Amino acid sequence: MKVQSAMFYFPEEVIEHIFSFLTHHPDRNTVSTVCKAWYKIERLSRREVFVGNCYAIRPDRAAARFPGLRSLTLKGKPHFADFDLVPPDWGGLAGPWIEAMARSCPNLEELRMKRMVVSDESLELLAHAFPNFKALVLVSCEGFSTDGLAAVARSCKSLRELDLQENEIEDRGPRWLNSFPDMCTSLVSLNFACLKGEVNLKSLERLVCRSPNLKCLRLNRAVPVETLAKIMNQCPNLEDLGTGSLLADQFSEAYVSLISALQKCKKLRCLSGFWDASPLCLLAVYPICANLTGLNLSYAPTVQGQDFINLIQHCVKLLRLWVLDSVGDKGLAVVASACKELQELRVFPSDLFAAGPATVTEEGLVAISTGCPKLNSLLYFCHSMTNSALITVSKNCPNFTRFRLCILEPRKPDPATNEPLDEGFGAVVKTCKNLRRFSISGLLTDQVFYYIGKYAKALEMLSIAFAGDTDQGMTYVLNGCKNLRKLEIRDCPFGDGALLADVTKYETMRSLWMSSCDISLRGCKALATKMPSLNVEIINEWEAEMEENLNNGVAEVISNNNNKHINNGNDERKVEKLYVYRTVGGPRTDAPDFVWTL
Amino acid sequence: MKTIQFETPARQENAPMMHESVNHLDLSLGISSSNDACNYKNAPKTAKRMISFQTEPIDASPAYKKCVSVSSRMAFDYSYLFSHCPTGFVDPWSLAARQQKAAAEQAHLKANPNPTSSKIAMEPQQAPVVVGWPPIRSSRKSLINQNLTKSCTIDGKDSTLKSEKLAETKDAAIRLELRPTLYVKVNMEGFSVGRKIDLSAHNSYESLSRALQNMFCNFLSNKLISKDAHANANNSEFILLYEDYEGDKILVGDVPWELFLKSVKRLYITRHSSAQEKAGDGIKDSQKEEANHLNDCSN
């Protein structure tokens, strides 16, 4: 009691100082709700904001609330947009956010965006509006070109980080690299691996030469070995390298130069790229393998078989490994014996159909789990899986926080017993108490959801496809997973009953995605009516129907606010795609024609 | 080195279906993209229904056996479309797939002015690709499609040949990346109208062969040749030739796929017997060209 009343007499500066120790966003959000004074202090001292769904709040409101903002992280489209389930022009526009920040938060230094649509004009605005801008990280974004990058390079005087991961960037020529001014020496991290076009190699070399602080450099496929060797000679302090194309003749000067350059890089910890890697170039990498903590070979189908084994057996300190399944169970067995510290493993498919001799099976996964007990993050694509393998894996590695298993053929049962994989995945949730992210596949009944609801108490994100029997499955999850934030479902037999089982649950979650399920327009309307704090958006092919009507001479004006189509009586129509999310921003104003907010 | 003879489809079970649907001018290229999987906005509604497997409510009984029988049927449906897909997975959003779909749609409209839902019947090569499955990003999918490594195994025997191959592969790789489509004309002997095919949508001779077979098998059936004649046509050997930058007609299949892509300008399908005659002509032509070339050099 005494302490509580004493807090009110603390001057603001002291409280602010106390708050500065709170870095975790949820904690800061909590203290801001205590009282008005704390709300004000918190908002003025807030330096970082994370907006998990860009439509959860209006940009100008966020900008106005946190005028001292230095770092903003935004996420736009739903996760399934990565797999082409969200039509283009759906939204996720970065423009309004950048404009709002330009108006209210001039001290912005860092902007991280994922799955958003960014235009060149927005990048231009970004480059000019924030004098202290230091870091731009774009992941899975689109809508911009190398001209936009040039604008950022040209005008951001103290740019430290330009990180482009997996974006769709229109290539308008290699000149953007020239745009970095000659006096720009501040670069610490540059990643343009996703750029598909040519790069001006001389500009690149000059840029690297004048960037003594460069720690992370990820090149794209157009950069040849010769340039890589020159660059490596310039920055022996590099910690993270993404190679360009590693195609080289073993007797070439470039290759020899590369070997000697790499040997000098004592601080190199993370390697990626490896496009077109010939086994000869891999030899060059051996000397530094012993210190590697991160290795990404997932874009290198040429690295397989014995080449892979020869490489990986040196990587004894590896923490993160991304590979293609062409390394096979044999390759994974070597990983298990060599990489005892492994924490994260991702195995991507190299061939979607034939389960050839060199793809991975449950044996590879079991071997990994036996050899690498510290494994906590897994993404594994395979052609089949057994319950017993999953049970063994969960016994060996109880520390999973992220577990994603994708069996390439939907609804495939355990080939040994012909049973569903409920028990296997059930074992994972039972033993892994810290499981936060879970993706399941194969033949699954409601039983697996019973297990998830019962045991997966820490679960935050669940991805389901082609699974379940009845509404009860989804209901188990909604009722049981207290910390669930994101639920994404496709091609499951869940209907209105499941959707409406616990409507208040959705207010505790960031979002729900359901596509190709059994929900109807009536169910979605009911949800929208009951929960006004949610945006209930549907995406439908009825648009095609409407267009047909138009073409046949039925004059109908289609506008975004025209409810004629939604309210024409037939509520039993199935909804193809549903996206529900909590928001304080109301229905969004930039929804395209095919998205209806109920 | 393997030479590829352009033979009629090995999968005989498809032949009867083609006969039944003689009026059904199916211009699919053998890539199972001929439905709404490609073009999101213009997808016919009926095709969309195919993707969703949950059109009827599934019985509430959770008995495993029933489940297994239902799902094994489903699994069968799926394994069928996955393992029989002739040319491998094609990114439904790729330009090639969308263009093929557009071509198929146009052809459908010409052949059937009143489109019915049966046009998207479940023919083996028309089986729908599941959109967005497996869940990998398009940048990885395009890597799988390219998959140049199959033809580029480095044996470690001849280093000069190796380096040549390496350079070619890289060239081909970069060219393929920078140029997403590679449409070439395909002319069949005896037909004044030709077709176009996108070579970059294929990664091997097998897939090209299958695509061409599908393309031109219907060409024949559309002509309403009698059954016997059709059977004869099926049995006689067709040769696939290509014309390169120098104008020479060369049998397809001698060189690695990537090198083929670099040099091909157009394709020809001729009957085996007439190819020999043409070869005779061709030799004369190329001799003439050689003579011209020599003249040029000496100048």
Topology:
The complex is a heterodimer of chains A (598) and B (299).
Chain A: H1 2-7, H2 12-19, H3 25-31, H4 36-45, E1 48-51, H5 59-65, E2 71-75, H6 95-104, E3 110-114, H7 120-129, E4 135-139, E5 142-145, H8 146-155, E6 161-165, E7 168-170, E8 189-191, H9 201-209, E9 216-218, H10 225-234, E10 240-242, H11 253-264, E11 270-272, H12 279-289, E12 294-296, H13 305-312, E13 320-324, H14 328-338, E14 344-348, H15 362-371, E15 377-382, H16 387-396, E16 402-407, H17 422-431, E17 437-439, H18 446-455, E18 461-465, H19 471-480, E19 486-490, H20 496-499, E20 511-515, H21 521-530, E21 534-539, H22 542-551, E22 577-582, E23 595-597
Helix pairs in contact in A: 2-4, 5-6, 6-7, 7-8, 9-10, 10-11, 11-12, 13-14, 14-15, 15-16, 16-17, 17-18, 18-19
Chain B: H1 14-20, H2 45-51, H3 64-83, H4 95-111, H5 138-146, H6 159-178, E1 183-188, E2 195-198, H7 205-222, H8 227-235, E3 238-244, E4 249-251, H9 257-263, E5 264-271, H10 272-298
Helix pairs in contact in B: 6-9
Explain the overall architecture.
The complex is a heterodimer of chains A (598) and B (299). Chain A is of the alpha/beta class. Chain A has 22 helices and 23 strands. In chain A, helix 14 (328-338) packs parallel to helix 15 and helix 16 (387-396) runs parallel beside helix 17 (422-431). The longest helix of chain A has 12 residues, at 253-264. Chain B has 299 residues and is α+β, with helices and mostly antiparallel strands. Chain B is 47% helix and 9% strand. Chain B has helices at 14-20, 45-51, 64-83, 95-111, 138-146, 159-178, 205-222, 227-235, 257-263, 272-298; strands spanning 183-188, 195-198, 238-244, 249-251, 264-271. A five-stranded mixed beta sheet of chain B has the order 2-1-5-3-4, sandwiched between helices. In chain B, strand 1 (183-188) and strand 2 (195-198) form a beta hairpin. In chain B, helix 6 (159-178) packs across helix 9. Chain B starts with 13 loop residues before the first helix and ends with a helix. In chain B, 31% of the residues are buried. At the A-B interface, helix 22 of A face helix 2, helix 3, helix 5 and helix 6 of B. Chain B: It holds the Pfam family AUX_IAA.
